Known about the structure:
Blueprint: E1 12-16, H1 21-32, E2 36-41, H2 44-57, E3 63-67, H3 73-84, E4 91-94, H4 113-136, E5 139-143, H5 166-190, E6 196-200, E7 205-206, H6 224-230, E8 235-236, H7 237-240, H8 242-249, E9 258-261, E10 271-273, H9 283-297, H10 306-320
Parallel strand pairs: 1-2, 1-4, 2-3, 4-5, 5-6, 6-9, 7-8
Antiparallel strand pairs: 9-10
Helix pairs in contact: 1-8, 3-4, 4-5, 4-9, 5-9, 9-10
Amino acid sequence: xxxxxxxxxxxxxxxxxxxxxxxxxxxxxxxxxxxxxxxxxxxxxxxxxxxxxxxxxxxxxxxxxxxxxxxxxxxxxxxxxxxxxxxxxxxxxxxxxxxxxxxxxxxxxxxxxxxxxxxxxxxxxxxxxxxxxxxxxxxxxxxxxxxxxxxxxxxxxxxxxxxxxxxxxxxxxxxxxxxxxxxxxxxxxxxxxxxxxxxxxxxxxxxxxxxxxxxxxxxxxxxxxxxxxxxxxxxxxxxxxxxxxxxxxxxxxxxxxxxxxxxxxxxxxxxxxxxxxxxxxxxxxxxxxxxxxxxxxxxxxxxxxxxxxxxxxxxxxxxxxx
Length: 322
């Protein structure tokens, strides 16, 4: 099945950050495949621009819009409440994020901006919407990154952001996203839940290889000979969105999987199941991160599962040896 080929059943898919980049192309491709798409964006104006662009390309596109700023937990709560009023949902594509911040910046609640947006905002968003996904046996797709390969989280304080290094903090935030995504899959399974949790990443998706979308993706000024070379090791954000789309609606996707490009070093290519670094599956660190995320956001992600007590026992056991 290609990324834009309809699945057997049309679904309602919520895409955060759908007004630009990967999120926009994921929304466009999902709409083209016959799914209802909820554009969950920070800016109402940019969301409307994205919706107009999709409708110009997809006749009869079924779209809705919800405002949410993942860098503000109050907005996350309000956005989740607005989404609940729209009716059933089948999948969350947790795409929105901050990529790079040369100087230290903070979210509305005072957390480092990249970690607070990319992980904490989506942690709260997922926790608040999980009951809706339980009703539909839905799916959560977490946007991972190849950058997790060079990141580690502090085992005693997984939310630590010092010393602040721009690229390193982005990588930490994405490792946190992946730890949460894989741990959520484990706990959902232990709880006997029908909800699935999947991680996906776009490879190296760059603007220079991305098709133009007026007011969303500008015309690339990259010379043709340069773009031809870049195509050997990178791809456009339209192709980079394919693993996200497939992870959201593919019929042969299973909880706990990691989807990404199948080419060299996972940098480009069509979506396949790919390996992640073992640190992204470290359940002791994941349990610490989960507990810290609940404290930071004030949102509990409660699952009736023996995995929680097992994770806490692992923490206690590790604490005895620190």
